[in-house]
C-alpha cells in the first residue's frame, strides 16, 4: 500500500536518512518455534558461535568496538488472505517475544502493530501489549499513516523485533491504537513496510534496511514468491501464500537469471522505469520517464487514466465500471486477456487469471488494471500482486534495484495447491542488530499535517 502523503509529497522529502550507523553482532537464543533455512540441530560450531556472540553482545552493549559479524539468511512463509487480496507474514515483538501476523508491504516503509489500547477498531486481531515487554521503549512521537484504503494512528516506540531468524533490538515501529475499518482483517495485526527509510512516516529505519545495511544478510536483498488462488473455486480464506526469502534468493523458485533494473534516483519506493506494455499483442503508448512502484501490499495494478483507457480499448466490449467500482473496467469473462510488461529489460506476462480480478455478474469480469492519479514526483504506476504472482521478485539493497525472474515449475506448482497454512512463528536468532544510535530524530508528521496534505493534493488512490 502506498501511503497517500508521499504520493503528493515525495519530491520535498529529505533524502538524507539512509544508513544510520548501527552495530551488528551475532547472538543466539530465544528459540521458540523454528523456521530457518538450515534446520539442522545445533552443532559444535553453533555452540561456539553462541559463546562468541554472548561476548560480542556484551562488548557492544557496554561500548566496546564493533566486532565482526556473521552473515546469514532466513525465510518467512507467507499466507495468501482472501483469494490473493493480501499477503501476510509473521514477526515477533518484545521480550518475551510475541508473534504477530503482518501484511508484507514493499509500498511503504513503516512497521506498525495494533496495540492493546486499540479497542474495537482493531477488531479481533491480536495486539501488542507494551507493558508486557521488558524491552519496550516509548519514543512518544505521534504516528499517523494514511493509505488509500484507510489509516492507522498511534505512537512511535522501539522494541526487539525478530523475523525469519533475525533479531533487531530497538527496532523502531508504531504501536497503533486506532485503525480505520477494513484495514485489518483478522488474524492480521499490522503491517511491515519493506520500502526505504526516506518514506517512513515514523522516521524509523525499516527492519529489512537495518538488516541489509548492517551486513546481517548473506546477500543484501530479499526475494518474494506469491501464490495464486484467484481462479481457484475451492480456495479457502487463508491459503499458503509463498515465501519471503531474507538475505538470499531461492534458486528452486525461479529459472534463468534475475533481471535487475536499478532504481533511477534516490530510493524511496521500490520504483523502476516502466518502458513498454502490450495488451493482446498491441503496444500501449507509455510516456518516456514513466516509473512504477513495485508494491506487494497492493492487490491490483494502478496507472494513469489515459493508459488504462488504452489498455481496455484493446479488449472488445469492455467498459468503465460504475458505483463502488469507479476507476475499474469490466470486460466479458469469456475474453482471455494477455498483458505483457517491460521495465527496460526482459518482458513479463501477466496470467489471464490475474487480469480477471473478479467477476461482477454471470458474464462480466472486473479487470485488475484501474485508474488512479498519483502525486507529482511519485511513480505514476503501482504494480501490485496481480503482476507479482507471475514472477519471482528480488528487492536489492545495493545497487538499489528490483529484479524479476520467471517462476520455476516448483513455484508454479504451489499455485492453488492448498496445503497447510503457515502459522506465525518466532524464528531463532541468527544475527542480532543492536541499535546504538542515540541521535535525536525528527518528529513524525502529525495527524493534522498528513490530513492537510491529503486534502490539499487530493491524491486519492483506492488500493
Ligand atoms: C507512549 O507515548 C505516547 C505519547 O506520549 C502515549 O500516548 C502512550 O500512552 C505511551 N505508551 C505507553 C505504553 O506508555
Ligand atoms: C535506533 O535508535 C534511533 C534513536 O533512538 C532511532 O531513531 C532509529 O530508528 C533506531 N534504529 C532502528 C533500526 O530501530
Ligand atoms: C488458474 O489460471 C492458471 C493460469 O491461467 C491456470 O494454469 C490454472 O489451471 C487455473 N487454475 C484453476 C483452478 O482454474
Ligand atoms: C527453496 O524452495 C523450495 C520450494 O519451495 C523449498 O523446498 C526449499 O526448502 C527452499 N530452500 C530454501 C533454502 O529456502
Ligand atoms: C520467461 O518465460 C517465458 C515463457 O516461457 C519466456 O518466453 C521468456 O523468455 C522467459 N524470460 C526470461 C527472462 O527468462
Rounded mean pLDDT score = 82
CATH architecture of the largest domain: Beta Barrel
**Fraction of residues in H or I helices:** 10-25%
- Domain tally: 2
Structure write-up:
Helices cover 14% and strands 35% of the residues. β14 (276-279) and β15 form a beta hairpin. Strands 3-4-9-5-8-7 form a six-stranded mixed barrel. Strands 13-16-25-17-24 form a five-stranded mixed β-sheet. Strands 15-14-20-21 form a four-stranded antiparallel β-sheet. By secondary structure, the protein is mainly beta. It is built from eight helices and 28 strands. The longest helix is centred in the first third of the chain and has 18 residues, at 44-61. The chain folds into two domains: 30-250 and 411-456, Beta Barrel (Cathepsin D, subunit A, domain 1), CATH 2.40.70.10; 251-409, Beta Barrel (Cathepsin D, subunit A, domain 1), CATH 2.40.70. Residues 37, 75, 250, 252-253, 410 line the site of one 2-acetamido-2-deoxy-beta-D-glucopyranose. One 2-acetamido-2-deoxy-beta-D-glucopyranose is lined by residues 130, 138, 140, 155. InterPro entries: Aspartic_peptidase_A1, Aspartic_peptidase_AS, Pepsin-like_dom, PEPTIDASE_A1, Peptidase_aspartic_dom_sf. GO terms for molecular function: aspartic-type endopeptidase activity.
Summarize the topology.
Elements: H1 4-9, E1 23-25, H2 44-61, E2 74-81, E3 86-93, E4 98-105, E5 111-114, E6 137-147, E7 150-163, E8 166-179, E9 188-193, H3 207-213, E10 221-226, E11 238-246, E12 254-262, E13 271-273, E14 276-279, E15 282-284, E16 291-294, E17 301-303, H4 305-313, E18 319-320, E19 329-332, E20 339-342, E21 347-350, H5 352-355, E22 356-359, E23 364-367, E24 369-371, E25 381-383, H6 385-388, E26 391-396, E27 401-407, H7 409-413, E28 431-434, H8 447-457
This protein binds 2-acetamido-2-deoxy-beta-D-glucopyranose (NAG) (5 copies).
Organism: Suillus placidus
Keywords: Aspartyl protease, Disulfide bond, Hydrolase, Protease, Signal
Domain Peptidase A1: 87-405
